[in-house]
Amino acid sequence: MHMNNPVNVAVIVVAGGSGQRAAEQGDAAPKQYRHLCGEPVLAHSLSRFARMRDVDVILPVIGAGHEKWYRRTALENRKIQPPVIGGGSRQQSCFAGLEALNTLAPRFVLIHDAARPLVFQDTLERILAALQHHQGAIPVLPVTDTIKKSVDGCRIAQTVNRNHLWAAQTPQGFHYADILQAHRSAQEQTTALTDDSAVAEWAGLDVVLVAGDKRTQKITTAADFGRLAALLSNEAPMETRVGNGLDIHPFGNGDRVMLGGIPIPHDAGLQGHSDADAALHVLTDALLGALAEGDIGTHFPPSDQRWKGEPSTTFLSFAAGRVAARGGRIIHLDLTINCEAPRINPHVAAIRNNIARICSIQPERVSVKATTSEKMGFVGRREGLMTMATATIQLPVSTRDEDLSKKEQPDNV
Ligand code: MG
Fold first, then answer.
1. Is the domain of 30 the same as that of 62?
2. Of 198, 233, 268, at which residue does a domain stop?
3. How far apart (Å, rounded) are the C-alpha atoms in residues 173 and 199?
4. What pLDDT does residue 256 have?
């Protein structure tokens, strides 16, 4: 866990349920591990929270025996903590998550249901704003259907005034110390409270309502998957961008070369900017190219003594951070290392994993290839080493672009 910085906002994503209602025949995975638009349901909310700047730490709480499914979901992201195993009920699972955050002692905690894959920055901001003045804040939607009360499920006993009714969503936000104390007391008293605000109400906390979001729907049945997939495809349109990079460094004195952040023993070293890691440099350039935000020298001038000997991890994680800051994501990185020696292949797996870690993406999205120059040219004469990279990213289409394309569209074609 990150002990250096005080944690302001922690998110607990409760994914403990066995959710068999949405499972199809023969598919044993609970609904939070079933795929929605190519990603497990749980991965959607985890990666959305990870992209929110206000969120410092994310803690998944999973069901006992669900580890094998979680491992397939596991996103490499520095904010996402190793999962905690939950209890037999939602309340028990939340409690396990809250206790696990005790050493971090966040100021605020947001508790979210994994079965609601679509969470939004706006909702988070409304909750955090309310928490400045209240002990708890939950997102709600007005109830639009007329509500009938029936005791036997057959005869109407009453029509309930819906003006006073609100449907509760998640994430539900609280001051961490207050909700932890409420859960601790509730442990001794009761275990049948269905959401955290019920625990908070039971403990007498001051919990207020904020506007929820219609799209933060809960997946309960198999039909919900189709509806949410349609919602996802209607989100802000993304465009795909491709950037490339080329880097060349000469060999010089030394007994190792740094490539992809991995030191590789060699009878020479690499000369150049920072630690001369031509693999991380070229990936940085490819990402900055896809963003059209200059190159590594623009952001980290080689003349600046600060970057002398700097681990090149700094540059690549900056470029990956720029993609995230613009609301985008890295789809794929493809790296080619061109040299006669040292032999790269034994290190490909380590390089791949390290690049994936730096960029907070899965190793499956990183390709590392090595080739020689058949003894031709400067690479063939072992004077230096060359790297090439292609970065494929997705960025939200800016509103300005949309306006332009609308204007250019001829009428009545
Ligand atoms: Mg370079």
1. yes
2. 233
3. 12
4. 96
Dist CA 408 CA 383 (whole Å)? 52
For ligand 1, the distance from its centroid to the CA atom of residue 276, given in whole angstroms, is 6
* Structural domains counted in the chain: 2
Contact 178, 109 (CB under 8 A): no
Using the mean position of ligand 1's atoms as its centre, give its distance from the Cα of residue 364 in Å: 25
Integer Cα distance of 333 and 354 in angstroms? 12
Q: What is the pLDDT of residue 19?
A: 54
Distance of CA 285 from the midpoint of ligand 1 (Å): 9
**What secondary structure does DSSP assign to 321-361, as a single string?**
HHHHHTT-EEEEEEEEEE-SSS--GGGHHHHHHHHHHHHTS
Question: Around Cβ 384, how many Cβ atoms within 10 Å?
Answer: 20
- Distance in Å, CA 282 to ligand 1 centroid: 7
Ligand 1 centroid from CA 301, angstroms: 11
Instruction: Tell me the C-alpha to C-alpha distance, in Å, between residue 91 and each of 108, 190, 239.
Output: 18, 9, 41
**Ligand 1 center–CA 367 separation, angstroms:** 19
Token pair of 385 as six digits: 């080493």
How many residues are recorded in the chain? 413
- Let me know whether 80 and 165 are in one domain: yes
Q: What is the pTM of this model?
A: 0.59
**8-57 residue pLDDT tens:** 999 999 998 775 444 444 456 888 998 887 788 999 999 999 989 899 99
Q: Name the nearest CA neighbour of 73 among 98, 50, 96.
A: 50
Cα angle at 182 between 178 and 185, to 5 degrees? 140
Domain that holds residue 223: 9-233
> Ranked by mean pLDDT, which of 226-235, 300-309, 342-351 comes out on top?
342-351
Q: How many CA atoms lie within 13 A of 248 on its CB side?
A: 6
CATH number where 401 lies = 3.30.1330.50
Q: Do 223 and 310 belong to one domain?
A: no
Q: Which residue has the higher pLDDT, 338 or 152?
A: 338
For residue 4, tell me if it sits in a domain: no
Mean pLDDT, rounded, for 263-281: 96
365 Cα: distance to centroid of ligand 1 (angstroms): 23
